[in-house]
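Q&A log
Question type: sequence-to-structure
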Amino acid sequence: MIPPIEQQSLDEIKAFQEQQLTKTLYYVNEKSPFYKKLFAENNIDISTIKTIEDLQQLPLTTKEDLQRFNDDFRCVPVTDIIDFATTSGTLGEPVTFGLTDNDLERLAYNEAISFDCAGIKQGDIVQLMTTIDRRFMAGLAYFLGLRKMKVGVIRVGAGIPELQWDSILKYKPTYLITVPSFLLKMIEYAEAHHIDYNQSGIKGAICIGESLRNQDLTMNTLSKKITDKWNIDLYSTYASTEMSTAFTECNHFQGGHHHPELIIVEVLDENNKPVSNGESGELTFTTLGIEAMPLVRFKTGDIVTLHTDTCACGRNTLRIGPIIGRKQQMIKYKGTTLYPPAMVDVLNDFENIENHIIEISTNDLGTDEIVIKIAVKEQSDDFLQEIKDHFRAKLRVTPKIEFTTIEVLNPIVFHPMSRKPKHFFDLR
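Response status: OK
Response body:
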């Protein structure tokens, strides 16, 4: 079910996107109070914006704009909104996104072609191990996409390994949708209760919220820990409420595939200029085909690298590599630039660590301070020194590391009001 546009030449994909861009700009200029005002204030004549390169003439939209002028982005009467979703608020106050009936259909199509990319087909059964409530768009999107594919769904929700295994053994799903670190808890529970997970019928897991790959697209420590025990395929997927679009890996595991019908992407440097091929920068997008709240040149805050070489799956679309970090979460520590994912990768190298949190604060000198609190199976000074040496070897610096208990960390990491585990706390 590869959409034809994804197998066309790069020139054909670009020409198609430029046609859709024109439609989007005329639509927001007419319907969106925010963009109508923004274009007028900046003397933008949208008729002159004809190519992807011309996008650079337009102002950028930020998360702060969405927070301050949330309702002004809406292009339809509130009575046309069928679903109200909110962002998770990772980098600030949550923002409300309304979706019309057509937007929900687009969302379903996006997930259908994304899951197809990961190998899910009609006849499969998928266990949904994420929340579908709490105004969470992703859980609803997964359900709508699978329904569109005529794929069976088991809506178990997050957590509770016992309930997850009960459903797996009873309904025989072939794929899971989950946070990858939770799969380690599933393995741990299965081993304690003599469940042969490699004979459970699970072929693969579509993984959200945590990275599975290093920047060279090889498996990172977390994915190795899972697959060394459980013989399943792990597929990365990257998405956000704002874009209503997912970038999901195919079975060649070379980054999340772009869907050109749904979104235009740019990667920008510190000066908001396009980066050179293969360089990292801030992912910025323009949505296509959204009715209620389209966005033009929206800065995600996520630092990524694009991959443009041809994929063996037959798609000619660009691919997004693992998120290097969030721009607002960048840490300057003892002259070294760090992002939380790099520190998590170091911690994942140790079997002895059961859970962790990373806290960033500003010290008396006005510089960044890092404290990592870890719960371990066995405490010792030698183990603490081993972690510090590993940080120094991998990242050139050693943050402050403190022992605590699993009883202290679990309620913080797995907060009942949070949609996903939270390991990073920015107190600056």
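Response note: The first strand starts at residue 83 and ends at 86.
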